[in-house]
Amino acid sequence: MADNQPNIMETKPNRPKQKIPANADSPTPAPETKRPSFIRRHPFWVLCGIVALAASIVASWFAWRVYFYPYESTDDAFVDARSFSVAAKVSGYVAVVPVTDNQHMQAGDVILKIDPRDYQIALDQANGQIEVANASVQSTSAQIDAADAAIDVARAQQNSATAALQYAQQEANRQQQLVKSGSGSVQSVQQATATLQQDQASLAQMQANVTSALKNKAVSEAQKSSALASLKQAQSQAEEAQQNLSYTTITAAQPGRVVRLTGAKGQYVEAGQAISMFVPDEIWITANFKETQLTDMRPGQPVDVTLDAYPDHTLHGKVASVQPGSGTAFSLLPAENATGNYVKVTQRVPVKIIVDTWPADVAIGPGMSVVPTVTVRPRN
């Protein structure tokens, strides 16, 4: 039995012997831990510092923009001009078009010519009417002169008849006295009386001749007035025909460019029909600034302008004027704020800017976008 039992001591594994420290009573030291950072230890104060720093930066930026920034700029600006349409004032067929689109012209240069033959004929007819009226005036003037001469003759005859009547009256009185005294004859009295009656009739006739001559002169003067009126009418017609003839040649009234030319040779144009647009050389910039940007803006302040189409060209100018009112106040349908619902909107006010010198190597015209920057305060 003893031999069959296993040897417990032999089956135990060999375990390593633990070394007992010399000072068994002392505790084992704990491993060292890393100290958290300042941000983790004070996150609230760090956040407050960041917010305060951001607020100071924003406040400084706003203070710079409001109180120290010397510029006001807007992208709501464009090149402006008083462009207008060129129209024909008379009708006719186009004979010559010596220009082309976008061509620059000086004052007096020909844009288009209408066939002038019909208007030349009308002018010749009017000149003929003037000659007829002049002849009528001369004829009536001659008639007036003749009437003056007839008046002179009639008055002379009247004076002669008056003298003869006076003598006949005296002779008749003398014969009657002689008859009463017995020295004269009845026949002599009768003869003197007949002569007196003849002279009275002759005087009446001469007076009628004078009246007739005066009326003939009045008629001639009325005819002359009519002839002068006809002359003025003929001269007015001739002047109108001359004007219409001059209107057949359409010229540029001022330096500028021809744009959107529609007139062509052989085309029939009506009076008032537009044949092109004309853009004068005098152009400026209309900048629509917000009303809050006008606090320090005054005429004469310098302006730097950048063209959207040609950003390499920087222009310089000055503020010419500020419109006394917002843009909507002068629109076709202005805003009606006297309603139940109202939302305040910052208005824009047009500001006119004059450029010192426009570049000559590029084409600049109305409607092109620009960005003006106005120096509203002296630079620090």
TrEMBL record:
Domain of life: Bacteria
Transmembrane segments: 44-64
Entry's Gene Ontology BP terms: transmembrane transport
All copies of domain Multidrug resistance protein MdtA-like barrel-sandwich hybrid, residue ranges: 84-278
Gene3D superfamilies hit by this protein: 2.40.30.170, 2.40.50.100, Helix hairpin bin
p-hydroxybenzoic acid efflux pump subunit AaeA-like beta-barrel domain boundaries: 284-371
Coiled-coil blocks: 189-244
Presence of the UniProt keyword Membrane in the record: yes
Family matches, as InterPro entries: AaeA-lik-b-barrel, MdtA-like_BSH, MFP
Keywords tagged on the record: Coiled coil, Membrane, Transmembrane, Transmembrane helix
Region feature (Disordered): 1-35
Keyword Transmembrane: yes
Protein name as it appears in the record: Membrane fusion protein, multidrug efflux system
